[in-house]
Each structure stands twice: as C-alpha cells, then as structure tokens.
Amino acid sequence: MTEQEILQGLYDRTLVGDAPAVLDLTDQGLAAGLAPETMLFEALIPALEEVGARFERGDFFVPEMLIAGRAMAGAMEVLRPLLAQTGAASLGRFLMGTVKGDVHDIGKNLVNIMLEGAGFEVIDLGVQVAPERFVAAIREHRPDIVGFSAFLTTTMPMFKANINALEKAGLRDQVIVMVGGAPVTQEYADAVGADGYAADASTAVRRAKELLAGRRAVAGTPS
C-alpha cells in the first residue's frame, strides 16, 4: 500500500470503528516510514472530527461514537509514546474525573478519547474522585482545564463542592472548569459557577478549544 492509501484506510476504518484494521494500518504506516504525527493529524483526528460532525447532525449515535473512539484509542496506544519522543505539541492539558459518589465512566472515557484525538494531553483520575484529590492533582499536573463528570442527580452537587475546594486552595483562577454528564444542563453549570458545559463528547472538545483559546487570548499567549 502507498502512504496515501494507508492514510485513507486509517480515516475510513476509524470512521466505522474497525479497531483491528486501524491497528494493522497504524503498524503498516510505521513500517512504511509514516511519521506518527502524520497519521494522527491527517487521518485519525479528521476521522474523529467527522464522527463528531455526524453525531451532531443525527447521522451517528453514541454506539457509533464509542466504537470509533475505541478504534482511535487502539492506534493511540501505539502512537502515544512515539509522539512523546518527537515532541509533538499538545493543545493543552485536561484533567478529568468522575465526582465522588459516582462510578459511571463510559461518557467520561469517550470524552477523554475525543479530547486526546483532538490533540489534548488527558490525565484521567478515574471515578469516585474526592475534592481533595482534584486539588492535589491540579497542583501536581497544572492542567489548563479540569473536567468534573456526574451521571447521577444525587452526585451533581459535588460540582459545587469541588469548585469550593478549588477556591479554598487558591486554584480556581488558575484552571478552566468544565462539567458534564447525562443529567447536567447549562443552567446547572451556570448555577455552580463552572466555566463550561457540554452535552456530549463532540461538543466537549469544541467547547474546550473555545475556552482555552479565550483564556490564552486574555493572557496574551498564543492559542
């Protein structure tokens, strides 16, 4: 296969969530001398962006997003260490976790995959993340954005508890706060003082980019 055929195949097979084919094509690309960032930025990310666009149009649904995301994740397992070696620039650092009292992570994991596919460095704290763990992780990793995920209405109040903890620790102004999850609304996000909200993984990526670009514009740094 030519390099262009490999890139087209990566795009096409990621789009339909054919994980074994995506992994095989990734290996073929590396064997053919394709740069990891070429495969990422010319095939994998465009495919995931198209998945997101189809989801927003109503042509794709959550299952299609999940299988495409998993296909991309398989390729990223191979490419991630190689990208790190080449010093490929990250869009920004995103710290993610499901709040204390909640063990749901499918939606969070899909957002993580989409963020990583878009070029973010993602640090996932997992589920049942207490406010003090978020505070410690922000101090350790210095993320640009922190994401709080909740699937249960009973755990949504942890958004405010987490933001209060950041304020008490003097970290609130240093990080963008995004919230999301099945029962969450824009109104609730506004009420707890979050900077951003997204109803789905595709929107989360776009919103994260917008918020980060806005923050950097205010700070006078390149986006």
Give me the CATH fold name of the largest domain.
Rossmann fold
Report the CATH superfamily of the largest domain: Cobalamin-binding domain
* Range of strand content: 5-15%
Helical stretch tally: 9
Q: Rounded to an integer, what's the Rg over CA atoms?
A: 18 Å
The shape, in one word, is globular
Quaternary structure annotation: single chain
SSE order, one letter for each helix or strand: HHHHEHEHEHEHEH
| β-strand number | 5
Please give the domain count: 2
Going across the major beta sheet, what is the strand order?
A: 2-1-3-4-5
CATH class bucket of the largest domain: Alpha Beta
Give the distance, in angstroms, between the N- and C-terminal Cα atoms. 37 Å
Q: Which structural category do the helix and sheet elements fall into?
A: alpha/beta
Arithmetic mean pLDDT = 91
Main beta-sheet annotation: 5 strands, parallel
What fraction, in percent, of the residue positions are helical? 55-70%
